[in-house]
Specification:
199 residues, ten-stranded antiparallel β-sheet, elongated
């Protein structure tokens, strides 16, 4: 009788050791997977399944509560919580993103579906679309907020015709021009009424 109990104890110990080793391997594999997850992938996950808005703290000090609607190659589009404005933010301008704990955990999981087209749409391309549509914008930089219409977008900069918010871009309304490096842009805000899709 004692030998049977002895072998049962050994089997239980062996099973427990195997389970602990399997758990340790799974835990290490998960740590390795997470070490390769990029911010962009987490933001894509928030765009596809966040239950609550995200608060974005931006490099110029601006904070915006918004729902991430799309993520491009190096930028994101978000509908602000009030629903009246759309925000385009270069990923490098995100200082911090506050998300609900559940959304934060879900965003770390692998995503099955990838939008290969969105992965290739750069900030410059998105801004060229705004220039083509002649949409009035507000652009935040570290130094100031500029309002007007984007006239053209180069490889690494844009030309902005300055005018009052909500005013159409007419020669009589333009009060100046600015050439802005794209690296200086912290955010671009558009009125949702402008009819620009949030991608």
């Amino acid at each position: 009788m004692r030998w049977e109990r002895f072998f049962e104890d050994l089997e239980d110990q062996l099973a427990a050791e195997w389970e602990a080793e399997r758990a340790a391997l799974e835990s290490e594999a998960e740590r390795l997977r997470l070490a390769r997850v990029e911010l962009r992938a987490r933001l894509v996950a928030l765009a596809h399944g966040a239950e609550a808005p995200v608060t974005l703290e931006l490099s110029d000090g601006e904070c915006a509560e918004a729902r991430v609607t799309a993520v491009g190659a190096d930028w994101l589009a978000a509908a602000e919580a009030d629903g009246r404005r759309l925000l385009i933010v270069p990923l490098r301008a995100i200082a911090c993103a506050h998300a609900a704990h559940g959304d934060l955990l879900r965003s770390a999981r692998p995503i099955e579906e990838r939008d290969r087209l969105a992965e290739r749409v750069t900030l410059a391309l998105a801004l060229r679309d705004l220039a083509r549509r002649r949409v009035g914008v507000a652009i935040g930089t570290d130094a100031r907020i500029l309002t007007g219409t984007i006239d053209r977008v180069g490889a690494d900069h844009l030309d902005l015709a300055l005018h009052e918010p909500g005013a159409p871009r007419r020669a009589a309304e333009v009060r100046g021009y600015r050439m802005l490096p794209l690296a200086a842009v912290a955010w671009v805000r558009i009125d949702a009424a402008a009819g620009v899709p949030a991608v």
